[in-house]
Design brief:
Elements: H1 8-14, E1 26-30, E2 33-36, E3 41-44, H2 47-50, H3 59-69, H4 82-94, E4 99-103, H5 106-125, E5 131-135, H6 144-149, E6 166-169, H7 174-180, E7 185-190, E8 193-194, E9 200-201, H8 204-217, E10 220-224, E11 248-251, E12 262-266, H9 268-271, H10 287-300, H11 303-327, E13 330-336, E14 339-344, H12 352-361, E15 364-365, E16 367-368, E17 373-376, H13 384-412
Keywords: Amino-acid biosynthesis, Aminotransferase, Arginine biosynthesis, Cytoplasm, Pyridoxal phosphate, Transferase
GO biological process, one term: L-arginine biosynthetic process
EC number: 2.6.1.11
């Protein structure tokens, strides 16, 4: 038998080189802490990219995993199952939606939403109404359709011709949107807070204008809440704090707390345009994923948890402001709930990765949102002691990076 001993170096030997993971290998997590192969602990502000909203190894989720895992994991969509029906009912009770479609990821949820929007337009208006309006710096997934709709060309270049009829406009530019949305528009897709694009909240007036333009021109408004959904913004879905209701909402990431699941939510009238066989999935809506997600939704939707998100948000922003008083490295700290972006000043432009690496060296896991923004997306239940200790570690990392820059500048004189 081959030697199955593995290290970080093994990644470079056996994996397709699409990722550049950290130097340490996490092996265990509990709450907001993670331990690596050396037994070293890290405080987790990354949350698996805004996924582990209830932290690691949540006891109630472990219980569901064991109970459902001993009954039925997978059955296929030639049958239905009780957990997926309960999950659909729970999500529909919490939102505008009447119908749900379950997939395995945010990309698949967005793929379904975009296909549905084109099908609705085709059925109602004919083949000429197919244009999709999206926004620069948006991110909607890595399938070829969703990456083409996303507003970051670096992800779609080099794969051949992209699908036709996709228009990218500046985010939060109401005038540009009203000029572009017209008779050929079948859908407008927007993140209520751009995540990968830099943690940029939408102006409520901008979203309201999109809603009115879609209504005027018979287009559907899609909210991509893959990152902002399931409590992340301090509301169960971010749209609920905007005064705007979409026609279709997509959700994933935190929905399964790390177990792969995504969903597209919509109304009865729109869902009716997807007939049997028009779209599908093998794993989507399987009973194991659905049972876990149902428990996640039950726990996160409680008023106490959502209030806790808003409280932690204020604490996190205040702590970052305090750190900035000392170092002056943030141009802006923005976001909602526990999706916070700290944009670096021009002196540190393009160096977000350096801060993430330094944070890991000091025992904190962090994210970037592009090369200029540090992103914080911790557990919605993060203990305040962990939040304080984690930010103390981040502050030490910032001290190390700024000191190194000062030393380099001094040596260059």
């Amino acid at each position: 038998m081959n030697d199955l001993t593995v290290t970080r170096q093994t990644f470079d030997e056996v994996m397709v080189p699409l990722f550049s993971p950290a130097a340490f290998v996490p092996v265990r997590g509990e709450g907001s802490r993670v331990w690596d192969t050396q037994g070293r602990d890290y405080i987790d502000f990354a949350g698996g990219i805004a996924v582990t909203a209830l932290g690691h190894s949540h006891p109630e989720l472990l219980k569901v995993l064991q109970e459902q895992g001993s009954q039925l994991w997978h059955i296929g969509n030639g049958y239905t199952n009780e957990p997926v029906l309960r999950l659909a009912k729970r999500l529909e009770a919490l939102t505008f939606a009447d119908r749900a479609f379950f997939a395995n990821s945010g990309a698949e949820a967005n793929e379904a939403a975009l296909k549905l929007a084109r099908r609705v337009a085709f059925d109602r208006f004919g083949a000429d109404k197919y244009e999709i309006v999206s926004f620069t710096q948006s991110f909607h997934g890595r399938t070829f359709f969703t990456v083409s709709v996303g507003g970051q060309p670096k992800y779609s270049e080099g794969f051949g011709p992209i699908p036709q009829g996709i228009i990218h406009l500046p985010y939060n530019d109401t005038e540009a949107a009203l000029k572009a949305i017209g008779a050929k528009t079948c859908a407008v897709i927007v993140e209520p807070i751009q995540g990968e694009g830099g943690v940029i909240p939408a102006d409520p007036a901008f979203l309201k204008a999109l809603r009115e333009a879609c209504d005027q021109h018979g287009a559907l408004l899609i909210f991509d809440e893959v990152q902002t959904g399931v409590g992340r913004s301090g509301h169960f879905y971010a749209y609920q704090d905007t005064g705007v209701t979409p026609d279709i909402l997509t959700t994933a990431k935190a929905l399964g707390n790390g177990f792969p699941i995504g969903a597209m939510l919509t109304t009865t009238a729109i869902a009716a345009h997807f007939k049997v066989g028009v779209h599908g999935t093998t794993y989507g809506g399987n009973p194991l994923a659905a049972a876990i997600a149902e428990k996640v939704v039950e726990l996160v939707s409680s008023p106490a948890v959502l209030e806790g998100v808003r409280t932690r948000s204020e604490l996190l922003k205040a702590k970052l402001a305090k750190i900035n008083e000392r170092f002056g490295i943030f141009k802006d700290v923005r976001g909602k709930g526990l999706l916070i972006g700290a944009e670096l000043t021009d002196a540190f432009k393009g160096r977000a990765k350096d801060f993430v690496t330094a944070a890991a060296n000091h025992g904190a896991m962090m994210l970037m949102a592009g090369p200029d923004v540090l992103r914080f997306a911790p557990s919605l239940l993060m203990p305040l002691d962990d939040l304080n200790e984690g930010l103390a570690r981040v502050e030490k990392a910032i001290e190390a990076v700024t000191a190194a820059k000062a030393t380099t500048a001094e040596a260059a004189r």
